[in-house]
Write a structure and sequence with these properties.
Length: 657
């Protein structure tokens, strides 16, 4: 195993599979594109015909690393072709310009359509051997063949592997197709369907395959299915380059420990322990090709292909007596030997003899019980499962935005309320969803809000961005008003926002002081000039605690004054009237003490006691009234409901101070 640095491209790797009739130049084109001869067997080179899977790779103009799986075109090797097309991101359909579409062109195209391969490019090879008029006729015929399939929008690119004409256009077309491909979903565990097994001197057993799902890393433990044997990754290669980890969508070679080559076979699957379970039955939706040569009958024998596996099966037709060409039906496949797959995996069905593709579809339940035929409840359950597993259905509902539990209980098709609660508990425990609010345990109350983890990440990212923008624009304010935040985030009703804020605050993502929100690392900080002005005023407040000078007298603007208030360095009791905190605390304590001693307090008594002006006395007492520390009765004040309890101290004598 040789070593080299991986590509710096941030675009994820991808896999393209060739398809097309024998002798249409697939392998020659791959060699011209990549510089690598995909035919590795001596027999292939001698006969100039691909018999088994071949592999090559190249870097596209964007920097994306592309693996190419070259498949046989001859009808006798169609099973080898099927082992290579599972897990591809796009197809490279090859049609020779001098012949046009041929029988295996049609069969390969049908297979790609059944597998749901919706991205691809058509290479019209040997374009240098025909004139423009003929090339246009072949292109028109190809478009007609593509029209009813998943590759209806595939671009056609004339090329010549001999002269090199069109190769750059083909690379660019592949790049554009893969650039438009949807991002691979996150959070999926890795699987490697094995398509080759061999031994390397000095290293031992090596397997290859197309990695789907998540990443693999050196040292990771894997389980081989269906054998159930445990192994560990000794080394990884992708495109003959040593790697510490392999990304989904890449061709991977894995050096395994503890397994001999005879322990592993094409069609086996490597995955983390616990991901796959063996089954000898599968429930699926099966579609027969419109030109299928047979009508599928109850208990018919078929060969099923999925991933890189091929396995004989018998068919139980669940909802009809037979499936005619062009029709669909619910079926259960039965196997004598186990198979390890997941819900959503695609499959192809061929009749055993004469071997020919007749249909395909998608696995709905990889671990079903044995079903009796023509049961309405069985078909109904399968139709619900086809929309998604219970956790998929709930997550799909949550991906639209935060939802109340009461809405989920009545709004997720096919699920009973208790199923919804069970699924919610499971996906919250696994981190796929977030329960909002202060109550994070116990049963779900109808008004509890739940949000998908990815939606939560989006909301909290917007919240952080919103608060950061506010702090930049308003550095002297302690935080952004809650209602302004809610308006910016467009979250309603208010109780949803309140529960969201509670959760955000409990996770340390923001600080909630009841009226404003701020980022945890934000603090108000005055610039040196403003701080110097502020300190002059604060010293003046200390020198005249009960007749405090106005901030404007020291050149302080409203922003700086507000910052000092938010920092707790002053307390505002009226417009332009501020006290130092210790002076304010003394005012509150002595005011309540005077009322407790004398029963009531007049404005003049307050003024004389603190030696201040009538203007300051009136503003301060009105502030204390608002805080319910005092309560006005006529022209006097009595104790308010929020007045502090007496501590035993008595108010100073009014005359002696």
């Amino acid at each position: 195993m040789t070593s080299a640095s991986p590509s710096d491209s941030k675009r994820p790797p991808a896999v393209v599979g060739t398809a097309g009739h024998v002798d249409h130049g697939k392998s020659t084109l791959v060699k011209a594109l990549t510089g690598i001869d995909p035919d590795r067997l001596a027999e292939e080179k001698a006969r100039s015909m691909t018999i088994d899977l071949g592999f090559a790779w190249l870097e596209l103009p964007s920097g994306r690393q592309l693996s190419v799986v070259d498949v046989p075109g001859h009808e006798r090797f169609i099973k080898n072709m099927l082992a290579g097309v599972g897990g591809i991101d796009a197809a490279l359909l090859v049609v020779a310009a001098d012949e046009g579409p041929m029988p295996q062109t049609a069969e390969h195209l049908a297979i790609l359509d059944l597998l749901g391969v919706g991205l691809g490019v058509v290479a019209l090879t040997k374009a240098d051997t025909v004139d423009r008029e003929w090339l246009d006729l072949v292109a028109e015929e190809v478009r007609d063949r593509l029209a009813p399939t998943s590759l209806a929008d595939a671009q056609l690119v004339p090329v010549s592997a001999l002269t090199g004409a069109g190769l750059e256009d083909l690379r660019s077309a592949l790049d554009a197709v893969l650039e438009a491909a949807p991002a691979r979903p996150g959070g999926i565990k890795p699987r490697l369907p094995v398509d080759r097994v061999f031994s390397v001197s000095g290293f031992g057993t090596v397997v290859t395959g197309t990695l789907v799902g998540g990443e693999l890393a050196v040292g990771q433990e894997l389980r081989l299915s269906p054998a159930g044997r445990t192994t560990r990754i000794r080394g990884l290669q992708t495109h003959q380059r040593k790697a510490e980890r392999a990304l989904p969508g890449s061709r991977v070679a894995i050096n395994l420990t503890g397994l001999a080559t005879e322990d592993i076979h094409r069609g086996d699957v490597l995955a983390p322990p616990g991901l796959l379970s063996n089954s000898q039955r599968l429930d699926a939706r099966l579609r027969l090709l419109a030109d299928s040569p047979v009508r599928l009958e109850q208990n018919d024998a078929v060969d099923l292909f999925t991933g890189s596996a091929e396995i004989p099966a018998r068919v139980t037709l669940l909802d009809r007596e037979s499936i005619a060409p062009g029709e669909e039906g619910w079926v259960q496949f039965r196997f004598r030997t186990p198979l390890a797959v997941l819900k959503g995996d695609r499959f192809i069905v061929r009749r055993p003899s004469p071997s020919e593709t007749i249909g395909g579809g998608e696995i709905v339940d990889p671990l079903p019980v044995r079903h009796k035929r023509f049961r309405r409840e069985v078909v109904g359950a399968l139709e619900t499962l086809a929309q998604g597993s219970p956790d998929e259905l709930v997550l799909q509902a949550l991906e639209a935005g935060p939802r109340e539990v009461r809405e989920l209980r009545s709004g997720v098709a096919g699920l009973a309320p208790e199923q919804v609660d069970s699924v919610l508990a499971e996906i919250i425990a696994e981190g796929d969803a977030i329960r909002l609010g202060g109550d994070q345990t116990g049963t779900f109350k109808p008004g509890t809000w739940v949000v998908a983890a990815q939606v939560w990440e989006g909301i909290t990212a917007r919240l952080a961005e919103t608060l950061a923008g506010f702090h930049t624009a308003q550095p002297l304010r302690k935080g952004m008003p809650r209602e302004e935040v809610r308006s910016r985030l467009r979250l309603s009703p208010a109780r949803l926002f309140d529960d969201l804020v509670t959760t955000v605050a409990s996770r340390g993502l923001a600080v909630d002081d009841g009226s404003t929100l701020r980022l945890p690392d934000f603090s108000i900080s005055l610039d040196p000039a403003s701080r110097a002005q502020a300190n002059q005023w604060l010293r003046a407040l200390a020198g005249s605690p009960f007749a405090p000078p106005a901030p404007a007298d020291f050149g302080l603007d409203a922003g700086t004054t507000g910052a000092l208030r938010n920092l707790g360095e002053v307390i505002e009791v009226g417009e332009g009237l501020y006290y130092a905190p210790d002076a304010y605390e003394r005012i509150v304590a002595e005011t309540v003490a005077m009322i407790d001693r004398d029963g009531t307090l007049t404005l003049a008594g307050f003024r004389d006691h603190f030696g201040t002006s009538r203007k300051y006395a009136q503003a301060t007492l009105e502030h204390l009234d608002q805080r319910k520390i005092t309560r006005r009765v006529g022209d006097e004040r009595v104790r308010g409901v929020a007045a502090p309890r007496a501590t035993g101290a008595t108010a100073p004598n009014r005359e002696t101070g």
